[in-house]
Write a structure and sequence with these properties.
The complex is a heterodimer of chains A (415) and B (624). With 415 residues, chain A is mostly helical. Chain A is 73% helix and 1% strand. In chain A, 50% of the residues are buried.
Chain lengths: 415, 624
């Protein structure tokens, strides 16, 4: 057995492993840096040690998961999914705020630890999707054939939204889109599924914009030769979202409304997310090409951003390591996601393919929304940066997902 | 596979999108975003949020903000703590003659600063105008001194509102640790007591932050541009049920020589109309921290001005309690309002070997007569009919042992014993005849002034219940309240009794009001030492039979008799109703107060017989 083979049997795909592990170590360093402030704060100053401990735990869990045969994991998908739903339900009742997100109830306190069940439920949902969609023998041809995956994702998503945690709920949406996309669903069906959201957007823009859109939608349905039941469903859904747009908007929490408004106009919410985006872009901008130097960022040291060790950690990276560091981090994410896509396309087993691509969907959503918001090109939603942001539950959940992917690579992948 | 190729294109597009945004921020707009950090350093300066204004029921201001100035000294960028402290001391020494600082002020400022030496030293929290002007003249001499405008709290009504409003002051180190103050920073002003504390979250707002750029010697270079500052979010306003005019009127006429308190509530809403405790103090003294000397004087005053006698002082309710017992008996159905008690009053009653006295010989008594005469013998018998255990249990159900839940943080729980109380405190199990003491408001029970006001408001309100007393309209749903299951006919009899208290032959006859249906009950409680305490509880309605619109309780320590208080209660009710209905107002309307004030008594109606409204007919719900 050559060295490469030994390595593979131990770590799975080495490129994937080292890219993730390297980013995680870098993350501990950045969390440490985020705690180095002008005015010492005991909580954030200690955060890096907690993160290092969680990384150690995550590594152990990674190696354990990699020893579990895929068929066992597939069998375990249903109990894990049910467990996830129960945990989310419990969280809605006894959940508390955590860290910098004190207003939402997303954490359960057990002893000295606070865990965030939504992160684990997310992984369980990916496995459940794999189990249900992996059993399909042909690509879905109508909207109706997709009802199972939609229900599987929407139920936990709604419970996360009720916490209310808009960011994590978006990740569930990303997973659903990725899995449906990967199952070779025709683009027309994908469009039909997405159309209610388009209807919502157009209804917001104005009545006549919405009317034109509805005419185009009818034309599409005719040309696509949609079935009668699809006609009814899609038109009905579009009419519903179009007319319910305003009531839905009013049902959002004040701060969620503010976040969306302040994305459009940051001056409207000076102390909330508009402020965060401004501070974050100033910090990143002041980093220039080479950065202010590790530990040295003046914006960070003055703690302009309260969430700089969690959701806004990319601002610290940008300020202290500049375009070079920020660019390398982006490159690392590209490599990780690229390897996963490459892995997924080689898999003969449909369960494994859906699961690996579901992970791609989840991580992609995290990276796009998180980095996008620190750069001021995406709305501010509380969502952490994979492998880097401070937060034990999320780190552990990503390593469990990584473990499943590595097991797949070990059993049948060989990228 | 086509899907994986599409996935790759999407991936690259995403990274390119983020990369472009990063490049644009860091390279194309890098200079514009860069913060000058070469030699200069930024100092964060908290900008206090203006607290919400507190209004009374008609929009009069109870607590407001006025412009004031803080004088701050910026610490230099010296790393060495010793050198830093020395340079601050030198600056303070030079400032002392300009600002006329006392040693105490300097000592306090230095102590506060030493906890966080990277922050500016707050030399004066509320600099007098002369000091601000003097500093402006010598600006160039003190380049490290900042005069920082902010909104200071002020209570225009001062002493009249001291006890419920509370005060604000700097957050203490102990409070910083509390979960309720999570996220608060040192130096922030918070509500420390009363409404200011109760509604801190609403009133407090969120402080902002500004950054000052200073050089290595602490000299101020400039304020940082607006976009780096965080504007404060002002606190939200609070609207009270309080009638500030009535409150000030009560504070004015309250007899200074007696410690005591008065509470007025609106029986329909439970809203507190007036809330005054005597002796009082000026809450403005506490803002920004009271000086040690001033606090010592207040704290060591033998009359205890800092004690809130409305909600934090429990007293035996004495004869005023008889109506609560009557209400309980009617609620339980053990008496009917018309019935006479079996034993006529012969000056006392013997029960189970205990002889308990009455203050006179009243003969046969029914409910109305017993209230008018405050006949102990009648209530002994009502108590015996109810029975000790049932009285204690039913009283607990009616909430006699619970605080009212009024929205101030310092309410004291009234004492209402349970059956084990005697065992726990006295070491014996109670005899049945203990109920005789409880039936006349004695024995192991004490009530707060606000609690008794609430019970009376419920007793006389249509339906036999009133929402829990509360000061602010924003207090949310009122707490559960006691409910007497009495009929309109029952209440008619209770009120007829109370009406005769302020009528010829009644204990408070001289306090009758010419224009309004003013009814009430006196109480006299034995004090542990000295003269007896006086109580009066009264309600005012537009005319006999109309629902009461105000219920007032007053307690006067060592005032000898309850009728002393009745005059003040009557005048307060007269003031409130006269203004409410736009009637001409006479400063003193009762014979008692006019005589006391040496004014001519021009109304003789107080000696005419009472007029009751028609008695409600027995209706379906009477047939319990």
């Amino acid at each position: 057995m050559s060295f490469g083979d030994r390595f593979r049997s131990l770590f799975g795909d080495p490129v994937l492993f080292f890219a993730v592990f390297g980013l995680s170590l870098f993350g501990v360093a950045v969390v440490y840096s985020a705690g180095q402030l002008e005015v010492p704060n005991p909580v954030t100053a200690r955060a890096w040690r907690m993160q290092a401990i969680w990384l150690g735990i995550s590594l152990v869990v990674l190696f354990v998961v990699m020893r579990i045969p895929i068929r066992w994991i597939e069998w375990f998908a249903l109990p894990a999914y049910i467990l996830g739903l129960v945990a989310l339900a419990v969280t809605l009742v006894v959940g508390t705020g955590g860290g910098t997100a004190a207003s939402m109830k997303g954490w359960i306190r057990i002893g000295g630890f606070a865990i965030q069940p939504s992160q684990f439920a997310n992984v369980a949902t990916i496995l459940m999707l794999g189990r249900v969609m992996g059993a399909w023998r042909e690509a879905p041809q109508t909207v109706w054939t997709l009802w199972k995956p939609i229900v599987i994702v929407v139920v936990p998503m709604m419970m996360v939204l009720a916490q209310p945690d808009l960011g994590t709920a978006m990740v569930f949406g990303g997973v659903l889109v990725a899995a449906i996309f990967w199952a070779s669903t025709p683009l027309g069906v994908l469009f039909m599924l997405a159309s209610p959201l388009l209807g919502l957007t157009f209804a917001y823009l104005g009545t006549w914009v919405y009317s034109v859109y509805m005419l185009l939608l009818i034309a599409f349905l005719y040309l696509y030769r949609a079935r009668g039941s699809e006609w009814a469903l899609i038109l009905g859904l579009n009419l519903m979202t179009g007319t319910l747009a305003w009531p839905l908007w009013n049902s959002l929490e004040d701060y969620q409304q503010l976040r969306i408004i302040s994305f459009v106009d940051p001056t409207l919410d000076p102390q909330g997310s508009g402020y965060q985006v401004r501070m974050s872009t100033i910090a990143i901008g002041s980093g220039g090409i080479f950065g202010q130097g590790f530990l040295e960022g003046p914006q960070k040291r003055l703690r302009f951003l309260p969430e700089q060790h969690t959701d806004f950690i990319y601002a610290v990276i940008g300020e202290e390591t500049g375009l070079i560091g920020g660019g390398l981090v982006l490159l690392a994410y590209l490599i990780i996601l690229w390897r996963l896509v490459k892995l997924a396309e080689r898999l003969p087993d449909p369960f494994s393919g859906i699961v690996v691509f579901g992970v791609v969907g989840a991580w992609m959503t995290h990276v796009l929304v998180n980095i996008g918001m620190t750069l001021g090109v995406m709305p501010v939603t509380g969502i952490p940066l994979p492998f880097i942001s401070y937060g034990g539950s999320f780190l552990l959940a990503t390593y469990i997902a990584l473990g499943v992917a590595q097991r797949v690579a070990l059993e049948q992948g060989r990228i | 596979m086509r899907r994986s190729r599409a996935a790759r294109v999407i991936l690259i597009a995403m990274v390119a999108f983020l990369g472009t945004a990063l490049f644009r921020l860091q390279v194309l707009r890098g200079d514009e975003n860069a913060i000058r950090a070469e030699n200069n350093r930024l100092r964060p300066l908290a900008v206090p949020a203006p607290r919400g204004t507190i209004y009374d029921r008609s929009g009069r201001v109870v607590a407001e903000n006025v412009p004031a100035f803080q004088v701050l000294v910026m610490p230099g960028g010296v790393r060495n703590q010793r050198a830093l402290a020395d340079s601050m001391d030198a600056q303070i020494e030079r400032l002392q003659p300009v600002l006329n600082l006392t040693d105490g002020q300097i000592e306090r400022a230095r102590r506060r600063w030493q906890r966080q030496t990277h922050l500016p030293l707050v030399l004066l929290d509320d600099a007098p105008e002369s000091a601000v002007a003097a500093l402006a003249e010598r600006r160039h001499q003190f380049p490290a001194v900042v005069v920082h405008p902010y909104a200071k709290r002020r209570y225009p009504a001062g002493e009249a509102i001291a006890h419920f409003i509370g005060y604000i002051s700097e957050i203490s180190e102990g409070e910083l640790e509390l979960p309720e103050f999570q996220g608060y920073e040192q130096g922030r002003f918070i509500g420390k007591a009363g409404l200011e504390r109760q509604y801190e979250k609403r009133l407090g707002g969120t402080p902002g932050r500004r950054y000052l750029e200073i050089d290595a010697n602490g000299r101020i270079q400039r304020w940082m541009p607006e976009e780096t500052s965080l504007p404060p979010i002002p606190g939200r306003d609070l609207h009270l049920y309080l009638d500030l005019d009535l409150q000030e009127y009560i504070a004015k006429i309250f007899p200074r020589e007696w410690e005591g308190s008065i509470a007025a509530i609106d029986p329909q809403t439970g809203g507190v109309l007036a809330y005054y405790s005597n002796p009082s103090y000026d809450p403005n003294l506490f803002i920004g921290g009271i000086s040690t000397e001033e606090f010592r004087v207040l704290n060591e005053d033998p009359r205890i001005p800092l004690l809130d006698r409305v909600v934090a002082s429990g007293q035996p309710a004495a004869s005023t309690w008889k109506l609560a017992v009557a209400g309980m008996a009617l609620d339980l159905g053990v008496i009917t309002p018309e019935e006479y008690m079996p034993q006529p009053c012969t000056g006392g009653l013997s029960f189970q070997g205990r002889y308990a006295r009455c203050h006179a010989v009243h003969g046969r008594q029914n409910l109305v007569e017993s209230i008018k005469n405050s006949c102990n013998v009648y209530y002994y018998q009502v108590g015996i009919k109810i029975g000790l255990r049932r009285m204690l249990e039913h009283g607990a159900r009616l909430g006699f042992g619970e605080p009212t839940g009024i929205d101030v943080p310092h309410e004291r729980t009234p004492n209402w014993p349970d059956i084990d109380w005697w065992e726990r405190n006295r070491g014996y199990s109670p005899a049945e005849n203990e109920v005789m003491s409880l039936a006349i408001g004695q024995g192991p029970m004490t009530m707060t002034i606000i609690k008794l006001a609430h019970i009376y408001a419920a007793l006389t309100a249509p339906g036999g219940k009133t929402p829990a007393p509360r000061l602010a309209r924003e207090s949310g749903a009122p707490a559960d309240s006691a409910e007497f299951h009495t009929t309109a006919r029952d209440r008619w009899h209770l009120e007829a009794g109370m009406r005769r208290v302020v009528a010829p032959g009644g204990t408070a006859a001289r306090s009758r009001l010419p224009k309004w249906d003013f009814i009430g009950k006196t109480g006299t409680a034995q004090a542990p030492s000295g003269a007896d305490h006086g109580w009066f509880v009264g309600t005012g309605a537009r005319e006999p039979g109309a629902p009461p619109e105000i219920a007032v309780t007053m307690f006067l320590a060592h005032s000898l008799h309850g009728y002393t208080a009745s005059g003040y209660v009557a005048e307060a009710i007269n003031f409130y109703l006269a203004r409410k209905y736009g009637e001409p107002f006479q400063m003193f309307a009762t014979e008692r107060m006019r005589t006391q004030m040496g004014l001519p008594v021009d109304w003789t109606g107080w000696s005419t017989p009472v007029v009751d409204p028609p008695m409600p007919q027995r209706s379906q719900d009477d047939a319990r």
